[in-house]
Amino acid sequence: MSHRFSGGSVSLTEGSIVKGMLSFAIPFFWGQLLQQLYNMADAWVVGNFADNAAFAAISSSASLIFLIVGFFNGIGIGGGVVISRYFGAGDEKEVEKSIHTNFLFGIIASVVCTVVGLLLVPYILRWMGTPENVLPQSMTYFRIYCAGVSTVIMYNICMSIMRAVGDSLHPLYYLLLSSIINVVLDLILVAGFHTGVAGAAAATVVSQGISAGLCVIRMCRGKDSVRLDFRKLRLEPSIMREVIYQGIPTGIQNSVISIGNIVVQSNINSFGEYAIAGVGAYSRIEGFVFLPIMSMSMALTTFISQNLGAKKYDRAKKGAAFGIISGVVTAELIGILFYLTSARLLRIFISSPEAIRYGVIHAKTVTLFFCLLSFSHCAAGVIRGCGKSVVPMIGMLAFWCGVRITYITVILKIIPEFRMIACAYPLTWSLTSIVFSLFLAKSDWTHAFETSSSAV
After folding, report:
1. CA atoms of 107 and 154, how far apart (whole Å)
2. In the predicted model, what is the mean pLDDT of residues 403-424?
3. Per-residue pLDDT tens for 145-188?
4. CA 210 to chain centre
5. Which of 46, 94, 252, 365 is the S-S candidate for 422 at Cβ 3.0 to 4.6 Å?
6. 380-to-300, 311, 391 alpha-carbon distances in Å
7. Helix, strand, coil percent content, the chain, rounded in steps of 5
């Protein structure tokens, strides 16, 4: 049976491993780059055409936004694993059922996420200790974002579906167009009409909605089993069980790690608005550093899932080795460059010397350890691809949340210095890398799908 169901769907189970993974990962990279431009455009325009409190407001909302969206996107990743496996096996009937189940889940998740976000935002922002001069703008930004969060969720659900069947190009094209629209709207609303964080949030929601709409149109025009038909939308129990089995651990991981990041952010907040702005600017730059890491991690998940579905175990192992090694080397080279140019890069977003000082302290504490960050993400991509998403969930919850929170809580009482917060990151990346290395070395992960299927 052919594994090429439509013009945009490509199998990763044949041909050169290096060429196949790179041709699939590069559109991932550009897509992630364009998504970062959403955040960068908001940050740059607000940082240059509004005040420092407005920039801090956007920065302090980031972890909270990911807390809400991250859970549902984790489910989307689980759905992508299920679709990739059936696509690799050439099972068109199950591919069709999986696509429609995932899409309907995205609609339901959008409604739930909007309601939860709008109801809880004031309480969580106050719990985080957001400074009083930042709080009003943080609430404004977050409320507008939550009101339109369905556009973000549906784009990511559609993107996961399209990428699961090998189409990483069309989501890139649509994101390119919406990124341009986002920048234009930012300049018009924030720089032109001086709407501040409200304009930045509105620009993001509108532009993301355009990319989601274009994805839906593309999927409706697909062929055979990858075509979206609204009349076929239903939650197939067997598929939903698999999606939940694969996706819930990732969703929980994203959300609980976000809770950990909120705790970290609350400690950063205690050092004042310049610390918030400095780390916020660093985070914008780090988002770009994450691009090759996350691109390879997501490509690995699809590659591993398709090849294990096709029972090409040796090919899956070779692809895993190439993906992890290339991701680690690339991340470390970028980390060294970031370390050497941190002050100049931070000035793209902020001009306050005090805010830059905080950002440089954070950057020079963590950037030389990006190799560990990359290994953690790429290894997690392999493990999710083989259907064992509970392993990265446990590892990241234990270290990126539990150990990180405990360490910061204790160390700041002993050494109340800002740098100690940043030290939590290389520490927890190291511990996670050790656990994932042991799993890949000791377990028979290439046959894990058979075990997962029997468990479901």
Report:
1. 7
2. 92
3. 889 989 988 988 898 898 888 787 888 888 888 888 988 898 89
4. 19
5. 365
6. 9, 20, 8
7. 85, 0, 15
- Could you give the CA distance from residue 189 to residue 238 in angstroms, rounded to a whole number? 47
Taking residue 75's Cβ as centre, other Cβ atoms within 10 Å add up to 26
Alpha carbon distance 64, 58 (integer Å):
10
User: What would the DSSP string read from start to end of 139-153?
Assistant: HHHHHHHHHTHHHHH
What pLDDT is stored for residue 3 in this prediction? 45
Q: Which two tokens stand for residue 309?
A: 């579905």
Spell 118-140 as b/e; 16+ CB within 10 A means b. eebbeebbeebebbeebbebbbb
DSSP 8-state assignment for residue 192: I
185-224 b/e (C-beta count within 10 Å ≥ 16 → b): bbbebbeeeebbbbbbbbbbbbbbbbbbbbbbebbeebee
Whole-angstrom Cα distance, residue 42 to residue 389? Answer: 33
Residue 113 half-sphere exposure toward CB, CA atoms < 13 A: 31
DSSP string covering 150-166, please?
HHHHHHHHHHHHHHHTT
pTM: 0.73
Q: Which amino acid is at 381?
A: G
Q: Is 402 exposed, middle or buried (0-12, 13-18, 19+ CB in 10 A)?
A: middle
- Residue 343 has a CB neighbour count (10 Å cut-off) of 14
Q: pLDDT tens digits for 320-363?
A: 999 999 999 999 999 999 999 999 999 988 888 899 999 999 99
pLDDT of residue 40: 66
pLDDT at 75 over 50: yes
Cα distance between residue 417 and residue 433, in whole Å = 27
